[in-house]
Amino acid sequence: MRYENPLQLAEEAAALDIIADGRVALGVSRGSPEPALRGYEAFGYTGSKDPRGADLARDKFDLFMRAVDGDDVADADPNQYGPGVRLPIEPHSAGLREHIWWGSATRDSAKWTGEMGVNLMSSTLLTEDAGVPFHQLQAQQIETFRKAWKDAGHPGDPRASVSRSIFPIMDATDAAYFGIRRGGMDAHDTVGIIDGYRSTFGKTYAAEPDQLIEQLKADDAVMSADTVMLTIPNQLGPEYNLHILESFAKHVAPALGWQPNTDGPVTGYPIDQAIAAGADTVSTVG
């Protein structure tokens, strides 16, 4: 978001959502660590007091959301409209807010996401370390988000997604690509420093389907989230990645409660039910 013009993004997102009949799912965030030092300033976006530009990203996102909601954001030319008239961004897509996700890497930013009233997107990295397994820390993040959403009084049921690297071992090719990860360093959470923060990296899941089902059922964040996004090795090409997705959809996901969606856009779990279930999980991890 540090590099975006928030009003132009709101215009383009609304137009795309209308063209796509409300099927847009737009994920935005501050942005990942980058090689450029305050690179957003080279694009004309200055004034951030944070070396990582987090304050700039949040201010822009606030303006973006006001434009998405149809708020007036600019003064009209009084020669054309008369005095005191303000204008919104056009076009306006009434349901766009429900399709927007903020990428969060901490419990604090998850709380802010809930307060903002958008969906939560959490990846395989959290830029904090609380001394607990990654999946438990991420489950706390989801619970924090849902509580903040409800406390803010937002209507509806928000969605919370987590990303996982999951590779069902179905044949010799799968074993050749990913079998070594079953016992290697990737099979465990790791802790390191990224962007100046002590961070927790989630493990890779690579096993036969029955083992994956057991492992994922023991993943608190996967079971708490209403959406699981699979990270795929795009360098291996579309055909092989389709094989990964089909293997997961046919042999793993149904055992986790997933069903193919043929009814169009979905919503998150009922908020009260999700908070109650999340509290039970979080209470076991401190």
UniProtKB/TrEMBL annotation:
GO molecular function, one term: oxidoreductase activity, acting on paired donors, with incorporation or reduction of molecular oxygen
Domain Luciferase-like: 5-176
Gene Ontology cellular-component annotations: cytosol
InterPro entries: Bact_Lucif_Oxidored, Luciferase-like_dom, Luciferase-like_sf
Gene3D superfamilies the UniProt entry points to: Luciferase-like domain
Segments passing through the bilayer: none
Superkingdom per UniProt: Bacteria
PANTHER family hit by this protein: BLL6902 PROTEIN, LUCIFERASE-LIKE MONOOXYGENASE
UniProt name for this protein: LLM class flavin-dependent oxidoreductase
Source organism of this protein record: Nakamurella aerolata
